[in-house]
Amino acid sequence: xxxxxxxxxxxxxxxxxxxxxxxxxxxxxxxxxRKLCIWKGIYPREPRDKRKVTKSLKASTTFYYTKDIQxxxxxxxxxxxxxxxxxxxxxxxxLGRGDVxxxxxxxxxxxxxxxxxxxxxxxxxxxxxxxxxxxDALRDLDDCLSMLFLFASLPSTSAVPAKMIAxxxxxxxxxxxYLIVSHSLRKSFLSIKGIYYQANIxxxxxxxxxxxxxNQRIVGDIDFRIMGTFVxxxxxxLGFINYRLFTSVGLKYPPKxxxxxxxxxxxxxxxxxxxxxxxxxxxxxxxxxxGESDRIDPGTQxxxxxxxxxxxxxxxxxxxxxxxxxxxxxxxxxQDTDAIDKFEPVAAGGDILPQPSYSSSDPAKLFSNFTxxxxxxxxxxxxxxxxxxxxxKRIGWDAVLGEGAFTHDESDPxxxxxxxxxxxxxAAMEVDGDGEDNQTAHKVGINGRYPGRIYVQxxxxxxxxxxxxLKSPEMYAPGASLPPHLSPFVxxxxxxxxxxxxxxxxxxEAEALDALIEDADKGSDEENGMDIASDEDDEDEEKDGFGGxxxxxxxxxxxxxxxxxxxxxxxxxxxxxxELEAEISGKQVxxxxxxxxxxAKLEQRKQLEKKAREEAEDLERAxxxxxxxxxxxxxxxxYTNKKKSTEDLKLREKRxxxxxxxxxx
Amino acid sequence: xxxKLANKKRKADVSDSESENELADGAFDGVLSASEDxxxxxxxxxxxxxxxxxxxxxxxxxEQDDDALLxxxxxxxxxxxxxxxxxxxxxxxxxxxxxxVDPKPKDEDDEDRNYRIETDANGNExxxxxxxxxxxxxxxxxxxxxxxxxxxxxxxxxxxxPHIGYDINGKKIMRPATxxxxxxxxxxxxxxxxxxxxxxxxxxxxLNLTQEELELVQRVQMGLIPNELxxxxxxxxxxxxxxxxxxxxxxxxxxxxxxxxxxNEAKQIMKLVRAIREGRILPYKPPEERAREDEEExxxxxxxxxxxxxxxxxxxxxxxxxxxxxxxxLSYNPPPEYLPTKEEREEWEKTDPEEREKEYLPQxxxxxxxxxxxxxxxKERFERCMDLYLAPRVRKNxxxxxxxxxxxxxxxxxxxxxxxxxxxxxFRGHEGRVRSVAVDPTxxxxxxxxxxxxxxxxDLLTGRQVWSVKLSSDEPVYTVRWRPNKDSFILSAAAGExxxxxxxxxxxxxxxLDQASxxxxxxxxxxxxxxxxxxxxxxxKVPPAKWARPxxxxxxxxxxxxxxxxxxxxxISWHRRGDHFTxxxxxxxxxxxxxxxxxxxLTQIPFxxxxxxxxxxxxxxxxxxxxxxxxxxxxxxxxxxxxxxKVLQPGSKWLSSFDIHPGGDNLIAGSYDKRLxxxxxxxxxxxxxxxxxxxxxxxxxxxxxxxxxxxxxxxxDGTVQIFHGKVPSDxxxxxxxxxxxxxxxxxxxxxxxxxxxxxxxxxxWCVSAGADGTVRLWM
Lengths: 665, 779
Known about the structure:
With 665 residues, chain A is an alpha/beta fold.
């Protein structure tokens, strides 16, 4: 006789555990359990059949895997939590006794992350456990970065201590430094939520959101303890990731941090990057170069002078002298040897092996020749970061925007590009321009502009980065209406609406015809002018009458082939009727009815409609052959497709309308 | 009650199974009677359970339990009326039970003896003991007043004497004076204290209770402990006291270490002092400084993934899904078509924030400096956090396939053609319903039979009636079928119990063919007259059918043979060779299915007994198989081995007809419950496809036998439905069935629509017979 199986001893009943049971098993408080779950990455599961798991079932019951909870039992952090609990009890006991000094002593021992900004425990083992390989960690970096960048811009409160914010900010800046050095930033997008960045590190695409530099509004009930728990883990994680990334490009971690500069608002400039091995790297401090090193370093000064002299001889003033800095030369040489050689087939007949090709513009070189000046009203931090990440070495900005600029002087002659985001003042410019001209030694152009440099709006930088080529600056000139800023993350799929393509390329035949007919209608309306307006009522009536008639016909006869001829006949009848009426009233027959082009179009549309109807019928027939289950599935699948296509349809319609308006204007 | 309890106890012991002795010495009578007390047992189950738990402890305990139970049970035995008597008895028992004061121990006799020594009459020594003074607590019950010593005899024996007995000293106890009636009345009016109205049995005096006794009774009535002095909660006696004793228990002197300073500690302190003096230890660090130090202590970073080893991802682990990347509409400067119109904006604002499809509205800013902070960014992040740790993750298989791939591969409409679409000819002539129609094997004429009892033959293309015969005046012609061979022109028809075989005389039939047909029909008569027919049939039995000539009148018209069977024939179907045909008469009990042999004029009844009413029967087009449809099943018999091969279960309640595909592996069946069923004979006994396209019963189903993959069914809703049914030559593929056409034309007359249909043997045309009296040709 087989052993009798008892209920609740195997299967789902044993595999799942409710949260209350889990908390009881771990002997933790609920907040501690939450913390542990967040750090260890343990999340609830959905049993296939809830009723099999527990007898007392509520809708809100959350289930965990029993194995997951079992695994939490061995967590060293559990002991820390318990210690903490004991300490808290001791403090409250001491306070209850009125023994304040004792309580204070205990408290000094307590782990108080609010005050110190870091806990007494470390989470590094958890990071290692959750991400056994570095690539795993990179894969999960999206949320981490978004969270830390957000916290870096939050105001400090009791729930979000200033220390935590400062640490987040530092970690983020360090990460940005890595991206600048490794040139691994790929794309960026200005959205209404903030700025999205996408980087590619070791083949992993990482996408994160950085809010605009404003005070964040905190609406609704937001539990900062939960977010703080996440941030605590993410800070540890990003710290270790930064270490690994920095060492992978031969830099020392943590980089030297200049408190003074940071207080002056240098941000990225407050860090000084150092090579790991000084012997191999001639310039110990790679730093955030603003081209300043050539001014400081006397050794290279001579070389630079010489080159400058050469350049002057060549009368090339546009070229930037600092480009030929010795260290950079070395860098370029390095890059050259690292790159893959191109294999060209010497003789015909061999197979061609595909090679990863560098895009026409290397991200490291996109802005490398420019000296950019940021006007006062532009967002400095994202611009500085993105320009540096795409190779720009010399960025200056107004002194208001903080420390760390290549130059604070707007009139610096080496500046090639200036990014402005202010409206053009038409009236003032001529008077002011003359006045300024007299005062300053430099030639200041109209509207306070310096000749010989390109003025662009900030979107130029983003669009150039996303398209991997420099956009023509005319379109982005100050005061010009900008072209739409498109998301670089959307992958165009077959059939979906794509705003970059012309409308004609993506609209369906029926839509195009509809549009044409509408156009023609309008055109003829316009031609005939006001004459028709008086007669329109009659026409409508006639049309209505005709419609009813034709419907009646259709009902009587279901032969589809005859329908077309029927319609023709009907239209002929109508035509004749109209003519007769016109005769009676003594008016001319309108040209609209005899427009052959329009008629052809109408015919075409009718054909299309018929075709569509036939197709629908076929589909219905085929659906009839499916089993009920499959039919449901089919309809479900079609539902989402239809929803998407109606959305696209709406977009196309809107665009058509807009284009028409534009044409008129 | 007592015996019951004993029973219970025994029972408990029996269940223990260890004590065999008790089983042996205990009488079983109780056990037997136990059955009578079953009800009581049920009530007292819990008691017995308790006992059984205790059971093994031993008998003594059990007995005590019994005693306790007995004493408890007393009240239930006594009647309510003499409650007081009961109380008295109890008090007596209590007195007995009271642990008495011990009598003075006897060994004290040397100090003061409690007896005197006297010499009795014989001169012997006699111990005379002091009178014992029985105090209240004494257990000496004899010492109670002047007790009557007459023993246990009724007092009535002394009724005639002035005394009522003798006391211990032999003196008469005189009868107490009883008052007269008046006295009694007075007594009853002013009751003395403690009056009970009873008489003491022993003394004859009225029994009065003392004050103490009354109180006792009261206490018992109230459920208190009878003895007033008994304290159920005495103070605990403290054996060990918590009070510290003043004097030490040990007189050992105090050790020195208690009062001398430790040298070791002094040494250590000196060490610290020295270190402080030398500056090796900073004695005191203010807490602020220490805190700052703590802060400055950086988190130690190292290469966490120094020796990383990729692990197989846990199959149960589901990584958190990434947030979708931003689309065009999230841009600060989106293409204008993404901006919401006024109506869309209003609708968005009207909907509840939780029901919105998008949590943002696309907005356009003409300069980057005008872009404000996003209001709900922190909230969105928070919600993402909540999702990460609180949302249950389930792996869902998204069907990322083209929905059209689900649709069956249908042949293109051009492939499906040709099939009949329109009425070509309407054949009118029958009065009443046309019951049956058949196209002849050459495809030039059709035959029809109807309610008017006639069989008519029509020219197919022109619709002209070429021949007609009235077979019966009162019975309708239920079925007409052609002999399926081209070498003859023989029509069979059934009217009532008669089956007629005829050779229609038409102009377009060649005389040679006509003659050949007549010869075939006549051949059987010669065989029959030879007397070989009756070989199988015993002389006494009536033959299942009678083959005869129908009479000269009919014979002139061309009707040559009449076969009379026992009940009305509804179905005729021919074997492909044309020598056999089968008839079905659903009302005929055991002879419902008959197989007729044309050449021998022989009729056989293959089934002695058939489960269910036979509805239809047919021969397999290729193999020697015979199909019989009863109401619910289709049975397949092997005619050579004479055995049942297969039973098909179409799953309908009442089959009307079926037809076998000319390939022989498929079968369609129609049923009166509106179903059309396609059976693949190799696949299963269940239908491969069930089609329900008709709103009324299906009368007839037919395959096209001339090479077109078509089949049709005729229904009472007045329509004929044409299907494309392609049976692939490859055995592994399933047949393709496509509904192609609904032929509407027949009118529904008294709930009957199309009664029969037949296909043209070569062309994709079909003929249908309707209840409206017409036959229609569709092409």
